[in-house]
């Protein structure tokens, strides 16, 4: 062949050795998909979640391999800072509900158990507080509100939003810390109107509301501390809306749900019982 094409044998073998092998071609394609998933998650996904996304696409690849390729290309998921202002005011004389949840974070269906909490959101324009409610079965944020004041109205608005969205039946267990907002007369009255059973954590025990604490930790790690501090309150509201409603609820794979999103997990539940 070399004689017919008037090519030297050494030149042919040099050209042939320079061609990428099948293994190199596979790695190049794999790297491309890893970079796509990394950027698609706004640089939030690490090797475990990217590996699961690749498996869904039909790839046979280990988490270690994904991690090595990410390290090779400088792809690193967001890391959190250790800063947590206090948002619980438990120094009051308001009624405290019993701890009915007892750290049992399991649930058998949507709208069986909700957990609620408040967290601080840093903003250059002024302080902001986020009140969130999470469904323990679907891990979905069913209600949330943002305000510059940590008042009863803040948590009430989140509760009303959650109720309007999910229309839960009677007997839902609602768990929170023993802050004055959740122990207030108005909040207790609203729970009673919705036929919900109140439950509160023990004093100073963050583990009693660990799932809600975990969500706020993820929020801080993947959104708040991965970018410059919000310049305005409107910017904070817009970005929180996009993160919670579009990314966390509908897109972000949750390891406790088999690496599918909360919204998809809820959808599968209703499809299976129909």
Automatic annotation (TrEMBL):
<feature type="domain" description="Integrase catalytic">
    <location>
        <begin position="106"/>
        <end position="270"/>
    </location>
</feature>
<dbReference type="InterPro" id="IPR048020">
    <property type="entry name" value="Transpos_IS3"/>
</dbReference>
<dbReference type="InterPro" id="IPR001584">
    <property type="entry name" value="Integrase_cat-core"/>
</dbReference>
<dbReference type="Pfam" id="PF00665">
    <property type="entry name" value="rve"/>
</dbReference>
<dbReference type="InterPro" id="IPR050900">
    <property type="entry name" value="Transposase_IS3/IS150/IS904"/>
</dbReference>
<dbReference type="Pfam" id="PF13276">
    <property type="entry name" value="HTH_21"/>
</dbReference>
<dbReference type="InterPro" id="IPR025948">
    <property type="entry name" value="HTH-like_dom"/>
</dbReference>
<dbReference type="InterPro" id="IPR036397">
    <property type="entry name" value="RNaseH_sf"/>
</dbReference>
<protein>
    <submittedName>
        <fullName>IS3 family transposase ISCce3</fullName>
    </submittedName>
</protein>
<comment type="function">
    <text>Involved in the transposition of the insertion sequence.</text>
</comment>
<dbReference type="InterPro" id="IPR012337">
    <property type="entry name" value="RNaseH-like_sf"/>
</dbReference>
<dbReference type="Pfam" id="PF13333">
    <property type="entry name" value="rve_2"/>
</dbReference>
């Amino acid at each position: 062949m070399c004689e017919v094409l008037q090519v030297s044998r050494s030149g042919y073998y040099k050209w042939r050795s320079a061609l990428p092998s099948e293994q190199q071609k596979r790695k190049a394609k794999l790297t491309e998909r890893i970079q796509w998933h990394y950027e698609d998650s706004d640089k939030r996904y690490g090797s475990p979640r990217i590996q699961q996304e690749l498996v869904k696409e039909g790839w046979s690849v280990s988490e270690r391999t994904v991690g090595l390729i990410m390290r090779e290309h400088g792809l690193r998921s967001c890391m959190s800072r250790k800063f947590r202002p206090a948002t619980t005011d438990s120094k009051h004389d308001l009624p405290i509900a019993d701890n009915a949840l007892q750290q049992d974070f399991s649930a058998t269906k949507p709208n069986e158990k909700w957990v609620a909490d408040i967290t601080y959101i840093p903003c250059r324009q002024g302080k902001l507080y986020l009140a969130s409610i999470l469904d323990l079965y679907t891990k979905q944020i069913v209600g949330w509100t943002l305000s510059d004041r940590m008042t009863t109205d803040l948590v009430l608005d989140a509760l009303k939003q959650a109720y309007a969205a999910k229309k839960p039946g009677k007997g839902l267990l609602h768990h929170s810390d023993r802050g004055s907002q959740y122990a207030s007369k108005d909040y207790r009255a609203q729970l009673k109107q919705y036929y919900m059973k109140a439950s509160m954590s023990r004093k100073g025990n963050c583990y009693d509301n660990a799932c809600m604490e975990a969500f706020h930790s993820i929020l801080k790690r993947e959104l708040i501390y991965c970018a410059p501090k919000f310049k305005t309150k409107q910017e904070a509201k817009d970005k929180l809306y996009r993160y919670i409603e579009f990314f966390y609820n509908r897109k972000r794979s949750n390891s406790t749900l088999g690496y599918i999103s909360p919204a998809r997990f809820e959808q599968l539940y209703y499809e299976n019982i129909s």
